Task: structure prediction
Amino acid sequence: MNTTFDVWHPSDKVEDQRLSLERLAAAGFSWIHWTHEYDGDYCYAPSEMQQLRDWLDELGLKAGALHASKGSDRHGERGRIAGHYRKDFTSELEPNRQAGVHLIKNRIELASAMGAKEVVLHLYLPYEVFRRDPAYREVFYGQVFRSFDELMPWCQERGMRICVENLYEAPGELQIEELTRLFTRYPSDFMGLCLDTGHANLVWGNDFVDRLAKPFADRIYAVHLHENKGWGWGPGYGDAHMIPSDNGFPWKELMAALKNSVYEGPLMLEVGMEEDETVGTFLKRAMEAGDWLNSLQ
Result:
C-alpha cells in the first residue's frame, strides 16, 4: 500500500482546487481522496467532472475514493432532527428523499469519471429521537433502506461501492447496530465501511480496533486515517484530524487489523495543518507519516 491524501477546499475558486492538486503531486503523493463538496447539495456538471479527470491525468494522480454528500443538514447537534430540508436521502418526505438519492448519484457519476470505485457517505443517526420515540427507529431505517435499495442496482451497474463512515456523534452501540443492519441487508459489492480512526477513537478510545475494525474486517473498503487526544479542551482534542504519530494511538494494532481485512487501497490520510505551519512543511510531515504507517504492515 502507498499513501493517498484527502483533498478538501475551503474555497470554490477553480484556481485553488487546481493548486491543491498541483501541490499534492509535487509533494510526491500519487493518490487523492476527493472531499470537496462532501456536505451540502451542490451538483457537479458533466463538464466539471471531465475537468477534474483531465487534471488528474495531467498531474499523474489517481482517485482512491470520493466523499459523497449526505445532502442538506437536517440533523442538529446530539442526534436531533430539525425540520425537513432539500436533498436528504433519509427524509420521510418523498420529493426530498428522491432528491437526496439524485445527489448521491451525482457523486457516483463524479467518482466514476475520476476513476474511483468507492464513495464515502455519512449516515447521521437521530439517536435522541430514537430515545424519545422508539417506533421512529424503524421509520428512519425504512427510508434509508428505500434509498439504498434504489441505489444498489445503479451502483452495481457501474462497479461502484458505497462506504458508510463511522461518525462520532452517535453512541457506539447504535453505530454497531447501524452497520450490522446495513451489512446484513446489502452485499459487499455494494455496501462497505469507511473506517475513520479519529471518529472511532472519540467513541471507543483505543478499543476501537477490537470493537470496530476487527468485527467488520470483511467490509472495510475505505479508510480515513487521523488521530486525536480524545474528548477535552485544547489543541489535539475533539475531532482534531492530527497527522498519525507514534504517541500512544493504536496504529500498530490497526495496521495489523487492516492487513487481515479486505482493504487493499492506499492509506488515506484525512489530516489538517497546524495554525503556524506552511503548506510545504505540512505535506512533508503527512508524506512521512504515510511512509511510517506503511512500514508497520
